[in-house]
Each structure stands twice: as C-alpha cells, then as structure tokens.
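A quick aside before the break. I want you to see a complete sequence-to-structure record at least once, exactly as it would be stored in a machine-readable document. Don't worry about memorizing anything.
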Amino acid sequence: MKLASLFFLFSLHVFAGERLPVPPDSPIRLFFIQRSTNINVAVYDANLIAGKLNPQDPVRTYWYKFNEKPPIEELTMIQRTLAYGLYTTAIQGIMNAFEGHFLAYRKRKFIVKQDASGNPIALFLINGKMQILKRVYVKVDETKFLTTVEYIELFGKDPVTGRDVYEKFKP
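That is the input. The structure line, written in tokens, reads:
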C-alpha cells in the first residue's frame, strides 16, 4: 500500500472518530475551530505588539492544514469576511481589551484580553457565563443545496476554578 493511501486511511479514521487532530500549542493561542467537513482547523491567535494586543487587529486568524507543507495558510477574503472572520472593537475604559463577534454568528459576543499574568484569553458565553474559550467543534450538514450547521460544541475553562466547561447548541 502506498504512503499516500495509508495517510488517506489515517485521515479518514481520525476524521470519522471523535479524536480530531489539534494544531501545535502556542502561548498566544486563543482558540481553534474544528469542523466535521475535514481535518483542517481555523486558528485564532492573539496578535501582540510589544507584549500587548494590537489595537488595530487583536486577533490573527489562519488555517492550520495538517496535510500540507507549510501547514499555515491565510484565510481567503471570502473566508475572512463571511465565515471565519471576526469583528472586534476596543472596550471603552478597559485597557488592552476588545469585544467582538464572529462575522458568521453575531448572537454571542466575546472578549479578547490578557489575564493577570499577561496571557491572552478569549472569554465567550458558555452555559450562560463568560468562560475561557479553548476549542469549538462545528457539525456541518452538506447533504442539502445549502450547507447548514447542525450544532456547535464549545469547550473551555472556568476562569475562576480552572474546571473544564462544555456546551452544545443549535445555532
């Protein structure tokens, strides 16, 4: 069996199960989005200048593609403006903190800031409380004329207790 065939089988196995691959960790990682459509991941990192969030563009978003070298690829204009892009604005009266929303899903806002230790975090509403968002999984249905989202799973940490938090909802 050829190496490409083995890799394809491995990709299908990983994709078909619950254990999707994750991008390498980074100290500036806010969160990433995994999708049911393939193993590529949309990554959201803090965009820092001199140790502070860039006030013009506090979050850098890109693809991490597991089957490509190099694995990092910038979003296309359409992906950035319609699907995976973010809208952010500085929060008045709070230094180095930004409120925003996903361009594709405006119902839940998030906050990007740095914690007391200077680590960048994204706070997102999970189970009715602002939690540190770590990972998102989106289950997509591509069997219809228009692609639809069946459900979204949010994985994060409670900023006070450090406990894992989880929510699954239909948008």
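Two observations worth writing down. The chain has one domain: 21-169. Residues 21-169 form one domain. We'll return to this after the break.
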